[in-house]
Amino acid sequence: MTHIDPCRHYKICGLPMPKRYASTMELRRLRYFLQVAREGSLGRASRSLGVAQPALGRQIQLLESELGVKLFERMARGMRLTDEGEYLRDALGHPLQQLDLVLKNVRSFAARADVSFTMGLPPGVARLLGPRIYLRLARELPNLKLRFVESDSASLAADLLRGLVDIAILAGITPDDRVFRSEVLREELLLVGAPGSALEGRDSVTFAELENLPLVLPSLPDGLPTLLEKLAARGGTKLAIAGEVDSIDLAKDVVKAGAGFAFLPGLACREAVARGELIAASVTDPAVDRVVLYAVQPLWRVPRSTYNEVERVIFEEWSAVVTGGTWPGEWLFDPRLLSTYAG
Q1: Are residues 24 and 87 in the same domain?
Q2: Shared-domain flag, residues 13 and 24
Q3: Residue 121 sits in the same domain as residue 88
Q4: For residues 48 and 308, what is the distance between their CA atoms, to the nearest angstrom?
Q5: How many CB atoms lie within 10 A of CB 143?
Q6: Same-domain status, 176 and 303
């Protein structure tokens, strides 16, 4: 007995879809809409989807009727999105990608096939932790499809919310409340300057002395400018801001040239200090430090066992570099919060 796909039967015959198939077809219409929007033509979209052009046109009409708006302007050579169509295209892209990923991962779990995982790491942290975590995950979870991204913490926080990154380490940035996060580490920010600068021969400076030192800071939404502003207001200190630089490497080059002073974690500046290219000093009364977070995007859906293993590897490697002194800082994280904690 030949099996007939009921959805295909109703599509070919142009009959109204029974209610039990409606949700499937509504989702399909949205995918059809996105393909027509990408191609800019019913004909090209029809060929790429393998759907007859009249049937595809009918699905777009049904979607427009359901929404009560025109999504396309019919042109002599193709179709152009209306304002409403552009809004729908932009709003649909990420949710449908997430749905595709969820469905793929569910099937992958059953078939023991690949599961996708993207991790974001800020500069410096990527160099230290990236290879350790990547190699362990590749060895212990061979079905995990790995992608590692290096970017500043503000960009990673935005990518978490957009679903472009699954797990990230964020330094000095608090992401949107929809992103799960936990404080893991507190690290001191050192004031760095060029050899021969006002920091020469000094292990520390007071916060009040910053009034006389031109500072090169990252721009918002990095949390450092806000932190310094609060500390300055508390003590009545007026900071001298020389400029903004959003790259750690560029900030080090600017400081080396004697154009100002910057705040950097020990992880980012210790090699340059060891080579004599920079001088570093602690800031006291009050000290300047920042919290480093572990953050997980709100829509990442993978089998619990896979997530537990990823989490375990990340925290084992992270803890090892901190307790071993490679990453200077105060460990804040309670291991009982881990999914794999056995008591």
Answers
A1: yes
A2: yes
A3: no
A4: 39
A5: 12
A6: yes
pLDDT tens digits for range 113-130: 468 899 999 988 999 999
312 forms beta bridges with none
What does each C-alpha distance from 302 to 154, 165, 193 come to in angstroms?
25, 14, 46
pLDDT given at position 23: 46
HSE-CB at 304 with a 13 A cutoff on CA atoms is 3
Mean pLDDT (the chain) is: 85
Quote the CA–CA distance of 19 and 239 in Å, as a whole number: 66
Work out whether strand 115-121 and strand 167-171 pair parallel, antiparallel, or are unpaired: parallel
Same domain for 309 and 284: no
Residue 316 lies in a domain: yes
3-state secondary structure of 244: strand
Is the pLDDT at 132 greater than 80? The verdict is yes
Q: Give CA angle at 14 (10, 20), nearest 5°.
A: 35
Which ranges of 14-118 does DSSP label H, i.e. alpha helix? 19-39, 42-49, 53-67, 83-111
CATH number at residue 56: 1.10.10.10
